[in-house]
Design brief:
8 strands, eight-stranded mixed barrel
């Protein structure tokens, strides 16, 4: 009888820990967005990069919005694993956010970039750069490429926003060699 209770207790504890660990990544990502949002406002106000917490090895470089999906998120400097745990990251070898070139942002398919599957050609995206200027983009394509296909990373002669995440979007096991790529073309500002 005691052995059965111990086994049941161990199973309940194990199940609880499994659920807690499964919820950890999305919860950490949401909490980080609050701290990152504060750092973003500091960056806009001061004109210099502001770290979200003292030991952070990244900082906000832009704010990405998908109005039709009701999504807005802070984009971080760098696309390494540590930065991507907290939000989408700007690929430092691509053009800075908001310039007339190809700016590449990567993110996890199961947290910040889960909304990519809902984007379709014609949808609007907005990217607020560190200077406070909001740049408008229109989605022109969404397709799957192999991770070795670097054509989506190449510079552009016009404003282009490239969003990349892992594929398949609903995979149970993370990783794999395929990437889901959303491309958006910059919309020139209207002169009024």
């Amino acid at each position: 009888m005691l052995a059965a209770r111990l086994v049941i207790g161990a199973l309940v504890l194990s199940g609880t820990l499994s659920l807690a660990l499964g919820a950890w990544m999305p919860a950490k990502a949401r909490l980080a967005q609050v701290l990152l949002d504060h750092a973003w406002h500091e960056t806009l106000h001061s004109g210099s990069s502001s770290k979200p917490w003292p030991w952070a090895d990244t900082w906000p470089v832009a704010r990405l919005s998908a109005p039709a999906q009701g999504k807005a998120m802070i984009v971080l400097a760098g696309a390494n694993g540590a930065a991507l745990a907290f939000g989408p990251g700007h690929l430092s070898t691509s053009a800075p956010p908001g310039v007339s070139d190809n700016s590449v942002i990567v993110g996890h398919r199961d947290t910040h970039f889960a909304f990519l599957k809902a984007l379709k050609p014609g949808d609007a995206l907005q990217l607020e750069a560190a200077d406070g200027i909001v740049h408008d983009y229109q989605v022109i394509s969404a397709h799957v490429v192999h991770e070795t296909d670097s054509r989506v990373l190449q510079p552009s002669r016009s404003a282009m926003l490239t969003l990349i995440t892992c594929f398949p979007l609903d995979a149970v096991v993370p990783g794999g060699p395929l990437r889901y790529v959303v491309r958006a073309r910059g919309i020139p500002p209207h002169n009024t």
